[in-house]
Amino acid sequence: MNGAESLVRTLLACEVDTCFANPGTSEMHFVAALDAVPGMRCVLGLAEGVVGGCADGYARMSGKPAATLLHCGPGLGNAIANLHNAKRARVPLVNIVGDHATYHQAFDPPLAYDVEGLARTVSHWVRTATQPGRVGERAAQAVCSARTPPGQIATLVLPADASWLEGGVVADPIAPPRRNTVDASIVDDIARVLRRGERTIVLLGDESLGERGLVAAQRVAQASGATLIATPQVRRIARGRGRPAVNRVPYALEPALKVFEGVRHIVLVGAKPPVQFFAYPGKPSVVYPPESELHTLAALDEDQVGALEMLAEVLSAAKQVASPPAARDGAMPRGAFTPEAFGGMFERLIPEDAVVVDDAVTSGRQLFGHTFGAAPHDWLQITGGAIGFALPCATGAAIGAPGRKVVCLQADGGGMYSLQALWTQAREGLDVVTVIFANRRYAILQGELMAVGATPGRASKDLFDIGRPDLDWVKLAQGMGVEARRVDVLEDFADVFSAACARRGPFVIEMRI
Amino acid sequence: MNGAESLVRTLLACEVDTCFANPGTSEMHFVAALDAVPGMRCVLGLAEGVVGGCADGYARMSGKPAATLLHCGPGLGNAIANLHNAKRARVPLVNIVGDHATYHQAFDPPLAYDVEGLARTVSHWVRTATQPGRVGERAAQAVCSARTPPGQIATLVLPADASWLEGGVVADPIAPPRRNTVDASIVDDIARVLRRGERTIVLLGDESLGERGLVAAQRVAQASGATLIATPQVRRIARGRGRPAVNRVPYALEPALKVFEGVRHIVLVGAKPPVQFFAYPGKPSVVYPPESELHTLAALDEDQVGALEMLAEVLSAAKQVASPPAARDGAMPRGAFTPEAFGGMFERLIPEDAVVVDDAVTSGRQLFGHTFGAAPHDWLQITGGAIGFALPCATGAAIGAPGRKVVCLQADGGGMYSLQALWTQAREGLDVVTVIFANRRYAILQGELMAVGATPGRASKDLFDIGRPDLDWVKLAQGMGVEARRVDVLEDFADVFSAACARRGPFVIEMRI
User: Same fold for the domain at A184-314 and the one at A339-512?
Assistant: First the structure.
């Protein structure tokens, strides 16, 4: 058995059975092993930004790592942006990066690259398997590292000769550490803080945003009067009718400061102290009052749900939790897009049990707050700020959550970063309805330029305006085998979106705004 | 004056007047400075792979560095692949990478990234300008570094506060070192080797592939009987009627070994000893006989053209050089694509003084050898093996060589990596005719898999076949505002290509093969 085959067999033994890939010559023996060993689903992305984002979305929905297969330094480089988003989401993910044969590196061939150095900038764990006999062991370590709470990016560099030489040994899975249980004394301390009745925010992130965590948190809030709020970026949050309505810390500084105004205590559950996305001259980096006290109920690697449930019990909280009213019936809005009108409409259109993937930026920021009364769904958000997230993430999410409708909300600027994901949706026949918010500009940057007090001139017009010429998303989607429609008014959107959700397979709606 | 303005003014003082960009929030003060200070041409790329490739093509044609403007670690990450190609081409290039304000990094905001660590993997020179008063100086150093022969990638990381704070100082340009002149004794030594009459190859790379270098090399070859050959990857080579016909070292191992069979001496001119692109089990890494002697006439940072001219004089070489016969007239080929028929046709179609950019991979490898009799032109080739090169490079080349027709030869697989470049061509009204060689598969990988002795199975079929569904390049191009036509037979290609070359502006031809 060569190293490549031991790798495939070890990944399968570790329950890694999905591989998002764009291979090259140095990965040929790995591909041959995939041919020879049944059981690995291989999904091609037409650029590695798609590959990385797919693995992120897959992990968010399936809860387990996919493998990526990337070609040398440049292949990994193309994946960096969405791997960064995945790293920030704390999902488990195993990158297999093929590289030149060990002895060939010294000749400095054209694709020679410091792959380990590159991988370290976006990974929690990096190793190179230089011996075929060690490949399996390294792969098992990589999967264990990826599954170490709260989830890590593990990158295994695989030189071609370690792949093709005989001597491969299949390794047994290595059990990852479990999440640590939070000590009862910590829970008691937090309960005492909450009982004081001082203005308190419970900041929820990571796994506390699942349905069980949210219910426990809501019980705590009802019993204590504390306010629940989610981190500004969420990997995945359970939402909709029958579930607690928890908003996020706003992106913009002023509303974020408003949320934390007068707060005495911040209880952190799978969350770091909330910071501004960017710094601005003369403005604070953190959005909470400097005099407020920070208390950690459960860290990222701890059992956040268990801690919240313990806390609810200590507070003798009622089991019953409030949830938002269902979306109102009545006439759908008409006319041109506004965030408010679209949000109210979208609340009523989200399909039952849908997965919503959000990289809608300026067009979509208000959608979250307008959709608490929708049918139950999960919401996945860009976590690392590297745009070009939603199309690939939605693609991977559809593979990680078969049978669920995926709704992808993508701003046009970010969409152009990884539009190739639509082709993968077409090939795999994935149930993804994509909404492109086509404002034909980097609207966020226009706002940011104003915020720094500058007068927009020719350069900023050239750099923020992505019209001239306008992108035609219907043609772009059709060019990759995905059906598409353009809509200019809200009433058309409702019709087209409902029809798209009622059928199978991918569909793109260009919403002109 | 803030740091950003000192940066713009220093770049302009250093004759860097073109900026390929995709900015984000941390670059807003730089954009504001671009608005305030006239003289910098700003060209937007809808993803950073486009930005990096444009800067490469621009430098290859203009001979001077462009700036790129990239947003934080992920923005740089997206550019890595084409920056790697640029690094391997040894072009001058200055990356400006915006980053968080220095004091904001400690809060670990979502976009926090080890930008310097990432930049080091693809740059010859990396600095972070943390003080506004040092930004100008650092920019001048970056340009000097970029222009240091044979050309370097210089990356300047610009934290937002260094950009927005007052205290900027415009720096004077720093003269880069000149190429060293090769010592006459070296030239005499090489002349003695050549006079022995033993089988000798002169391997030409870098600036020796310009018209002057090639003419001098051809004189040397005629006087000595040595064979000229170019490196397997060329940044830019002057070709066509009236110019010496120099072929490249073949990509594939067997024909490359054939070229060097029985060779006693290899004279290196701006070239490293030729190595295989990839290693294969049991095959050599280098393509020349181990017993052959390597002689360096001029290293990468030396005056290669001057050395060749000195050598020609020492050999008392005739001034007159042979050049290939002009392409034959007669009926154009008809029917389906074959590399030979297409090559013979393409030789007659290349416009006078065109710039040909080649990332055609399997479909295009034979075109080089079939086009020596074309009208005079320059040929630019992918140098680092990171696919997705030709569309961005052609875009930048058109900006770097105004008034010249650019012909872009792009394989469909690689084309999908950076198709967004077509939009920049449309916006800028660039004279680029792109030929997409649509074989709807990663044909190179099918060949490589066979080469490793594997039997193609389900996984390799899923990973090498980029049909299912077929890409429609006409719609993809039109979706970005570029006119396009599909052709299935050679006679149609000739008509459509000639018409596209006769008009202004970008055009895409999908050649189904």
Answer: yes
